[in-house]
Design a protein that fits this description.
Enzyme class: translocase
Largest sheet: 2 strands, antiparallel
GO molecular function, one term: NADH dehydrogenase activity
Membrane topology: Multi-pass membrane protein
Keywords: Chloroplast, Membrane, NAD, NADP, Plastid, Plastoquinone, Quinone, Thylakoid, Translocase, Transmembrane, Transmembrane helix
Distance between the termini: 29 Å
Subcellular location: Plastid, Chloroplast thylakoid membrane
C-alpha cells in the first residue's frame, strides 16, 4: 500500500479548489481565469510528478493504491489505483483541460460558474480513470453529466436547450444501464457482495448472466463512446457547445466510454467479450464508413468535425473487438491520438467562428489570406485527422489494421472484407477533410463582404494550437511514448482471460 494519498489529492484538488472561485473578490474576470489556469497547471504538474517518480512502467499490477472505508452501512470504499491503462487518459485529461481553460478566455458571462464547472469535470474525469471500486466509478461517471449539461444549456448556441436536453436524456439513459450493471455484478457474489475491481476480476458468472451484464455495460459505454445508433446526441451537442466545452467533449468525454469498455467489459466479463467481439468489429467497420459519408453531407463546420470523431471512434471499437495485443494497443493509442486531434480541430473551428461569425461551410471561403496562421494550423491538423504518415493518427490506425490482420479469432475471408471496408473509410476521410479546408479557406466568398478585416491568431491561440500539435507529431514519430505505458497491462489482460 502507498502511504501518501497522491491519487486522492489529484482527484479532489480541482473541484475543491474550484469551489473557492465563488469566494474570490469581484475584480472582473481576469482573476478568475488566472486562478483556474493556475489550478489546472498545478494539477498537471502534480500528476506528472507522481507518475514520473511513484509509478513503475514495467509493473502491470495496480499501483499507488488507496483504500479507505467510506460508508460503513453497505461496505462502500474510497478505492483508487492506477495501472498502465489509466496513466495515458489521466495525463491527456490534464493536458486538454488546461488548454481548454486557456481557450475559454473570451467567455465573460457568469465566468465563475463556467470555470467551476470545468474544474468539476476535471475531477470527475480523473476520478473515473483511477477508480478501483465499481460504485465509485459510477459516481465519478455521473459527476460528469451535470457540468456538461450546464455548460451546454448556458453557454451554447441558438439551439442549446434542445441539444442539452438530448445530451442529458441519452447519457442519463445510458447511466441507468451502468448502475443496474454495477449493482448486478456487485451483488452476485459467491460469498458476500463486493464492488472491488480486483475481487470481481477473478470472479466467474454463469454464461447467460455474464451476457446480460455485458449488454448492460455495453449500452452505457456505447452512448458515451458513441457507437451507432446511439451517437445522434454528439453532433447536436458539438454543433451548439462553446468550443472550449467541445475540446473537453471530443478530447476526454468520448474516451471515457472506450476506457469503460476495456476496463469493465474486457477485464471483468471476458467470456461474453469473446462472444461479442465479432459484432463489435462489424459495428466498428460500419461506423467508420457511415460517419465518414454522413460527415461529407454536413453544412455546419462543427457537426462535420463531430461526425469525423464518430468515424475515428470506429477504429477504437475494432481494436477492442480484435482481442489481440496489437489491436488493443492500437485502440489505446487511437484514444490518446484522437483526444489531441479532435480537441485541436474544435478549438480552431471555434476561433475561426469568433472571427467571422459564420457556422456553415457554404457561407465561408477565402479565409486563407486574411488569417494565415489559423489556416496553417487548421491544414496541418486536418492532415493529422486524415492519418498522414508521421502523425499520431496514422500510427494508431495502422496498428489497429495489424491487430485485425494478425487476429487468430477471425477467418481469412472476414479479415479481407473488414480490411477492405476500413480502407474505404480511410479514403473517405481525406475527402471530407480536404473539402472542409477547401470550402473554408479557398475561393473568394468573404472578399465580397463589407467591413472585411479580421485579426489573425493571437499569441494565446497560437500557444494552444502548437501545444496540441507537438504531441501529435511526437506520438507519430515515436509512438512508444504511449505504447510503453499500456503494453504490459494489455498483455496481462489478454493472457489472464482470453488465453486461459
Amino acid at each position: 500500500m502507498n502511504y501518501f494519498p497522491w491519487l486522492t489529492i489529484i482527484v479532489v484538488l480541482p473541484i475543491s479548489a474550484g469551489s473557492l472561485i465563488f469566494f474570490l473578490p469581484h475584480r472582473g474576470n481576469k482573476l478568475i481565469r488566472w486562478y483556474t489556469i493556475c489550478i489546472c497547471v498545478l494539477e498537471l504538474l502534480l500528476t506528472t510528478y507522481t507518475f514520473c517518480y511513484h509509478f513503475q512502467l514495467d509493473d502491470p499490477l495496480i499501483q499507488l493504491a488507496e483504500n479507505y472505508k467510506w460508508i460503513h452501512f453497505f461496505d462502500f470504499y474510497w478505492r483508487l489505483g492506477i495501472d498502465g491503462l489509466s496513466v495515458g487518459p489521466i495525463l491527456l485529461t490534464g493536458f486538454i483541460t488546461t488548454l481548454a481553460t486557456l481557450a475559454a478566455w473570451p467567455v465573460t458571462r457568469d465566468s465563475r460558474l463556467f470555470h467551476f464547472l470545468m474544474l468539476a469535470m476535471y475531477s470527475g474525469q480523473i476520478g473515473s480513470f483511477s477508480s478501483r471500486d465499481l460504485l465509485l466509478f459510477f459516481i465519478m461517471w455521473e459527476l460528469e453529466l451535470i457540468p456538461v449539461y450546464l455548460l451546454l444549456s448556458m453557454w451554447g448556441g441558438k439551439k442549446r436547450l434542445y441539444s442539452a436536453t438530448k445530451f442529458i436524456l441519452y447519457t442519463a439513459g445510458g447511466s441507468i444501464f451502468l448502475l443496474i450493471g454495477v449493482f448486478g455484478i456487485g451483488l452476485y457474489g459467491s460469498n458476500e457482495p463486493t464492488l472491488n475491481f480486483e475481487t470481481l476480476a477473478n470472479q466467474s458468472y454463469p454464461f447467460a448472466l455474464e451476457i446480460i451484464f455485458y449488454i448492460g455495460f455495453l449500452i452505457a459505454f456505447a452512448v458515451k463512446l458513441p457507437i451507432i445508433p446511439l451517437h445522434t446526441w454528439l453532433p447536436d451537442t458539438h454543433g451548439e457547445a462553446h468550443y472550449s466545452t467541445c475540446m473537453l467533449l471530443a478530447g476526454i468525454l468520448l474516451k471515457m466510454g472506450a476506457y469503460g469498455l476495456v476496463r469493465i467489459n474486457m477485464e471483468l466479463l471476458p467470456h461474453a467479450h469473446s462472444l461479442f467481439s465479432p459484432w463489435l468489429i462489424i459495428v466498428g467497420t460500419i461506423q467508420i464508413i457511415y460517419a465518414a459519408s454522413t460527415s461529407l453531407g454536413q453544412r455546419n463546420l462543427k457537426k462535420r468535425i463531430a461526425y469525423s470523431s464518430v468515424s475515428h471512434m470506429g477504429f477504437i471499437i475494432i481494436g477492442i473487438g480484435s482481442i489481440t495485443d496489437t489491436g488493443l494497443n492500437g485502440a489505446i493509442l487511437q484514444i490518446i491520438s484522437h483526444g489531441f486531434i479532435g480537441a485541436a480541430l474544435f478549438f480552431l473551428a471555434g476561433t475561426s467562428y469568433d472571427r467571422i461569425r459564420l457556422a456553415h461551410l457554404d457561407e465561408m471561403g477565402g479565409m486563407a489570406i486574411p488569417i494565415p496562421k489559423i489556416f496553417t494550423m487548421f491544414s496541418i491538423l486536418s492532415m493529422a485527422s486524415l492519418a498522414l504518415p508521421g502523425m499520431s493518427g496514422f500510427v494508431a490506425e495502422l496498428i489497429v489494421f495489424f491487430g485485425i490482420i494478425t487476429s487468430q479469432k477471425i477467418f481469412l475471408m472476414p479479415k479481407i472484407l473488414i480490411t477492405f471496408v476500413m480502407a474505404i473509410g480511410m479514403i473517405l476521410t481525406p475527402i471530407y477533410s480536404l473539402s472542409m479546408s477547401r470550402q473554408m479557406f479557398y475561393g473568394y466568398k468573404l472578399f465580397n463582404t463589407k467591413n472585411f478585416y479580421f485579426f489573425d491568431s493571437g499569441p494565446r491561440e497560437l500557444f494552444v494550437s502548437i501545444s496540441i500539435f507537438l504531441p501529435v507529431i511526437g506520438i507519430g514519430i515515436y509512438p512508444d511514448f504511449v505504447l510503453s505505458l499500456s503494453d504490459d497491462k494489455v498483455e496481462a489482460i489478454l493472457s489472464n482471460y482470453f488465453y486461459r
